[in-house]
Amino acid sequence: MRTLVAGLVLAHFPAPTPVSIDTYLDQALDVTGLPGVSVVVTRGDEIVHATGAGHDAHGGAVTENTPMRVASVSKSFTAAAVMTLVEDGRVGLDDEVHDRLAQIPPRITVRHLLNQTSGISDDSVDIGQLTGARTLAEYVGLLPPVDVAEPGTRFAYSNVNYNVAARLVEVVSGQSYGDYLRRHVFEPLGMHDSLAGGDAPNGFNSLYGIWFDRPELDDGPAVGGSGTVITTAHDMGRWLVAQNGHGPFATESLHAMHEPSGVHDYGMGWQRDGNGMLVHSGNLWTYNAIQAIDPESGYGYAVMTNGAALVDDTGTILAGLIALSRGRTPAEPGGSRQLVDWVLAAIGLLAVALGGLGVVRARRWAERRHGRRPWLTVARLVVVTLPAVLFAFYPQVVSFVSSGRTVLWAQLGYFALTLTVTLAAAALAGLAVLTARVVRLVSVW
């Protein structure tokens, strides 16, 4: 029945043409202002079109063969690597990980890791310490003690789960994770330009609308299971075709990877959205990516960008590709990143201007406060310190609004650079006003 429905949908909507995809991508690049984008659209067992636009850090054109970091999209590859071991009978989804990795608490199964229901969360480990690990063995060795919730009872998205899963691949197979992924996932799919870890051109960060290239932040194992895959639009086409049932993966394995857990819509490196699509996004510090497959129609999509900012445009571009494949005219991608940058630039300039004015007028302010209620003077002094207080707890605030994901100071100097600079400017302006007012108060009183 599923095959029949997919065939009917494919027959109803003719595939978008390469020209229409290229035209849309050029438009998206122009509107979003991204440095470079590569995309691929697949249909059934065919790659409809893989292409790219813009430039990389070396000044070269981004094409379907440009290496791109896909960040957390890597998780679906890790799940596939584990499933090849399951298919070979070398490990079971309901095996306890503790039997292979003694550092992991008992009762956590392989399935729990891949479904992000192990009970391990960013709050249960020292993420800052883990960023210093260079290998998966070292990473897992730094984990204990792990205070976990009851396995299988709640969802908590954490890179730890997938780095542990990658280490499990190493222990079970006797090969490095990178080698195993290449031999048992990439090579069988013909993904000859894909690897875990390795070099890719620098990505870009935006500072008030100006892009500049930077090396990727070194914050964990060089080859890990949570976000180190480098691939191309052409290779992603082969991957999406296989995920839609036209590849070496067993039907049972695809079903297991795509099926949500009992406590969340997340499966094993895929998550079902409200429209029945299976998606997974990825955000690194200088790259962003998103992939999607439609099990009913057989379409697949991937969007990869070599720029990361507060606003991620990959989802918007993906929506346009989906519209094309359904015979609709894509909505024009919005310029929300530029708007956010302009607003933050205005806030930063205003903070600096008000800070300068406050310093200049500090003596007059102190004279007016002479003889008035001391508590009111203290309150007014406290107000100007609020930006500095916010900046002092900046990582904690961002982590809180990121649904429990731990964000570190070093990371805030990348994708959130514009916000970080704006907050720093406001904090310094407030401290300058505080210092000037205290000095003037002492001299007047």
Structure in words:
This is Beta-lactamase-related domain-containing protein. The chain crosses the membrane at residues 342-362, 374-394, 414-439. It comes from Lentzea guizhouensis. The protein has 445 residues and is of the alpha+beta class. The chain folds into 3 domains: 2-83 and 174-325, DD-peptidase/beta-lactamase superfamily (Beta-lactamase, 3-Layer(aba) Sandwich), CATH 3.40.710; 89-162, no CATH class; 336-444, no CATH class. Helices cover 46% and strands 13% of the residues. The chain contains 16 helices and 12 strands. It has helices at 2-12, 18-32, 74-87, 110-115, 127-130, 136-141, 159-173, 177-189, 233-243, 251-258, 314-325, 336-360, 362-369, 374-392, 394-401, 417-444; strands spanning 36-43, 46-54, 68-69, 195-196, 203-207, 210-214, 229-231, 271-272, 278-283, 288-293, 299-305, 307-308. The strands form 3 sheets. A 6-stranded antiparallel β-sheet has the order 2-1-11-10-9-8, with helices on both faces. Strands 3-7-4 form a 3-stranded antiparallel β-sheet. Strands 6-5-12 form a 3-stranded mixed β-sheet, with no helix packed on it. Helix 2 packs antiparallel against helix 11, helix 3 (74-87) runs parallel beside helix 7 (159-173) and helix 3 (74-87) packs across helix 8. The protein is globular. Mean pLDDT is 93; it is low at 1-9.
